[in-house]
Amino acid sequence: MKEMTLYVDHAFREKIVSELGAERLLRCFQCSTCTVNCPISEFVDWNPRLVVEKCLLGLRDVLKEEGLWLCTSCQNCYEHCPQDVRFSEVILALRRLATEEIKAGRLKVGSTKPVFDECFLEMIAKYGRQYEAGLIRMFAKRSGLGFKLLLSFKGLGIRLLKKGKVALRPKKIKHIEEIRDIFRKFGGDRGEIGGYK
Amino acid sequence: MKKYSYYPGCTLHTSAKEYDMSVRAVFSALGVELIEIEDWNCCGALEVGIPLLAYALNARNLALAERAGFDLVVPCSACFYNLARTDHALRDEELRRRIGTNYARRIKVRHVLDVLANDLLDEIKMRVKRELSMRVVPYYGCLTVRPSDFGFDDPNHPESMDRLLSALGADVPKFPSKAKCCGGPILMTAEEVPLKMAGQILEEAKRVGADAISVACPLCHLMLDAKQPDIEEALGKEFKVPILYFTQLVGLALGIKPRKLGLHKNVVPAREVVEKVLRQARRTLSVGRAAACSKKRERLRDS
After folding, report:
1. Domain limit, last residue, from B54, B81, B113
2. Dmax over Cα atoms in chain A, in whole Å?
3. A63 and A101 in contact (C-beta within 8 Å)?
4. What is the residue-averaged pLDDT of chain A?
5. How many domains does chain B have?
6. Domain enclosing residue B210, as ranges
7. CB atoms near residue A171 (< 10 Å)
8. Interface predicted TM-score of the whole assembly (ipTM), two decimals
9. B215 three-class SS
């Protein structure tokens, strides 16, 4: 076996821990309760305990984990952790750091989830409420999936349409300026993008 | 008259119309007023990964509800999670200042399930017109009961919906998957995983012989109901299990017309179970009438 020396990247570790929601990371004693309770790790190669370990070692590779984008926020890890690490909040912190890297062109991920979340936010900033038909159109365009996406969700769309459960026009709230103000203050660089300058 | 503020959330105006219809119908049948808060905004669902942004969006809704002065009732579990989580976080005065809200935590955030099962159960029992003669499994999903920091039921083995449905005469078997995840939040970006996750829930419901599954969240409903044909195709199995909002079931028991409960809007047809309940109710009614008649006859004979 080849030997390997690992140095803890303290700077990166500090960066993660200083994110809102990831403050409790250092409490982890690697018991794997999060992994045992994760519904996703049953289906894909994803080990929450290992992800925490990578964070503790400050491995930048952790941002490449595909599983980051598969978390459903089911809160099982949050609920069961004996050390109250709140892993589901750590995931959000890692997603934010990864999104920064993606935007800077330093990281590429296979998942379309970061694009979907951005579109979702933009819809809220635009109308104050979610507008599903517009969201799907925007997501199809920006993810590059285009017609392929529409085709794979054709069945669902038709079923909902038949039952009159799709809004064909957006509903904008009255005081949309209050929402835009919130985005300008807390949305990072999202305050000035898209149709909600 | 008892009053609550009401935050429907985005889906209750679109893909979960029948949830909105049945919530309103049930509350009005119970004589409890729901006042929709004015100009509410989206809670951000599970797509807002920036905590301060999520808190600020939800604090706006909380402040609007507080101005109305009544506890806030929320039907969607993702909305409930966001609003309750924000309310919980805003105990911290420093955070309140940071996001600049005037919300002072004078109201409570409540899930519809919590209100019906814990506040209004007696009123519901008093007004039951039809027994729910069916076998129904309760499915809570994730955010209805987790995290327990601000929840109202057990995070792993919740039983509020079990209690409510049993009180309406339903046969409620043990359902170990009741608080499992349906995978809904990643439906648009990793479809094959949630199809398997929701498939397991449907399979278990079949195994325990359920006539229907009762849910309390629009995303769980979308996954299990509107996506059920896709799940069947992906797994090569047939389920055909009707997925009803628990409020549709409460409404049925209260004698509300199926159409008013949006029971025609469910994708997997609910007609068969609904008719079973109505038929059984008619039979009980006629048996009851017959019993009353024979009692009257006896009384007449005796006198």
Report:
1. B113
2. 66
3. yes
4. 94
5. 2
6. 130-283
7. 13
8. 0.94
9. strand
C-alpha–C-alpha distance, residues A92 and A106, integer Å = 19
Task: Please count the other Cβ atoms lying within 10 Å of the Cβ belonging to residue B193.
Answer: 19
* CB contact (8 A) between residue A43 and residue B196: yes
- The alpha-carbon radius of gyration of chain A (Å, integer) is 19
Looking at the fold, whether B88 and B158 belong to one and the same domain comes out as: no
Q: Which residue has the tokens 């929709």?
A: B36
The amino acid present at B99, given as its one-letter code, is I
Say which CATH number the domain at B61 has: 1.20.1050.140
Count Cβ–Cβ pairs < 8 Å, chain A vs chain B: 148
Six-digit token string for A189: 């660089």
Query: Is the domain of B56 the same as that of B86?
Result: yes
Residues B147 and B278 in one domain: yes
| Per-residue tokens: B97 | 């200042």
User: Are A183 and B53 inside 8 Å of each other by CB?
Assistant: yes
Pick the closest to residue B199 from B173, B232, B221 (CA basis): B232
Residues B39 and B179 in one domain: no
Q: Which residues contact A195 (CB under 8 A, 6 or more apart)?
A: A122, A126
Residue found under tokens 């159109």: A137
- What is the DSSP code string of B107-135? S-EEEHHHIIIIISHHHHHHH--S---SB
Question: What residues in B contact A111, CB-CB < 8 Å?
Answer: 189-190
Closest CA to B110 of B34, B19, B223, B224: B34
B289 in any annotated domain: no
Give the tens place of pLDDT for each residue, A146-159.
999 999 999 999 99
The amino acid occupying position B172 is V
Q: Is A128 on the interface with B (CB under 8 A)?
A: yes
pLDDT tens-digit readout, B273-296? 999 999 988 888 777 777 777 787
